[in-house]
Amino acid sequence: MAQSSTVIMASTILHAPCTASPSVKPLSCQNYVGLKPSSSVNLRFNCVTTTTVKAHQTRRLFVVKASETRDGIMKKLGLTDAECEAAVVAGNVPEAPPVPPKPAAPIGTPLVPSLPLSRRPRRNRKSPALRASFQETSLSPANFVYPLFIHEGEEDTPIGAMPGCYRLGWRHGLVKEVAKARDVGVNSIVLFPKVPDALKSPSGDEAYNDNGLVPRTIRLLKDKFPDLVIYTDVALDPYSSDGHDGIVREDGVIMNDETVHQLCKQAVSQARAGADVVSPSDMMDGRVGAIRAALDAEGFQHVSIMSYTAKYASSFYGPFREALDSNPRFGDKKTYQMNPANYREALVEACEDESEGADILLVKPGLPYLDIIRLLRDKSPLPIAAYQVSGEYSMIKAGGVLKMIDEEKVMLESLMCLRRAGADIILTYFALQAARCLCGEKR
Known about the structure:
Elements: E1 7-9, E2 46-51, E3 58-64, H1 81-89, H2 128-133, E4 144-151, E5 157-158, E6 166-169, H3 173-183, E7 188-193, H4 213-224, E8 229-234, E9 247-248, E10 254-255, H5 256-273, E11 277-280, H6 287-297, E12 304-311, H7 318-324, H8 345-356, E13 360-364, H9 370-379, E14 384-388, H10 390-401, H11 407-421, E15 425-428, H12 431-438
Helix pairs in contact: 4-5, 5-6, 10-11
Family: Belongs to the ALAD family.
Subcellular location: Plastid, Chloroplast
Organism: Dipteronia dyeriana
């Protein structure tokens, strides 16, 4: 090959200099790592002769197409292992692809000495494979509990404040939705009933009707899906004509012990129907221990209790209350739900629930209370649950509709954050959608 010849990649055609252009320095293969021809690499050279400004002078153009530098899979030479080793010992080292050239920095990048760093954390983040290898937190459909709203009707009624969510007909729509969830690995649900107003009362007696909406639904689902894990909500607000989680005295005080008596009957009724986990969400004092005793007395020692341990009096519950038509008829729930400003109080609740026999501790809401999730995770050996509530769900949905955020990415990130904070399971209305994303489905 002539000294003035130039080897270039197919993306650029460069003409070698001639004597008519002495100011342009010739380029040499030796100056570019990876461009030196090798006997083991098949290079195609296209030689083109062109005429320079002076008629008697010519120059050559060589083009190497990057896509044709290899013939694909290398052919075996038929040598034994011993012959291959002998060849290497004798100095006949087989050719390998050349070292790739060092990528160039953009023009104008300052030349600076390397920082004297003994540790560069970015090294463990430089490729998708490395990032996957060192990922500390995983997210799986098995981590989700799918909250489902049910009603007595046969049609599925959309919930305006929660796009994509419905009050499901307990005999038809619910069964179909559970089947969809199971198809993508979500095998745990929690039921929330919309009770007809005519069945509501100040004492919430419908809550423990063995033939009520929730017990009937549990029996139906267990008949169709015996291995389905069914969580239930233990509280009086869906059944109370006052819309509170407990019995209301005439002066507006929520009665604690009398409410706990009703909750015990409700939990036993749900267990009798086949519930796997009963979940007192009322925040009455002493209700976990009383429910445990009531379940054990009726032979339901195998039924777990997931206590709403740190349930805050949050403004994020609005869409949920629309879904069940369970807004308090007066006042608020601040005398029994926790003050959002409090942190240490969550430990008090957790210690009580643990000592009374809770199997799972739940924090509600989820994302705004990551510090509480981490607190309970660090202080308790019990499984920790987080409830990504309706307000969190609706904000992400609204942001996605308005194209202000990427709904799918924010959804998955929010769920991962709950897991990272220490939640073992997450109650989320995104359960089906998120599971489909994790499984690679896009519908």
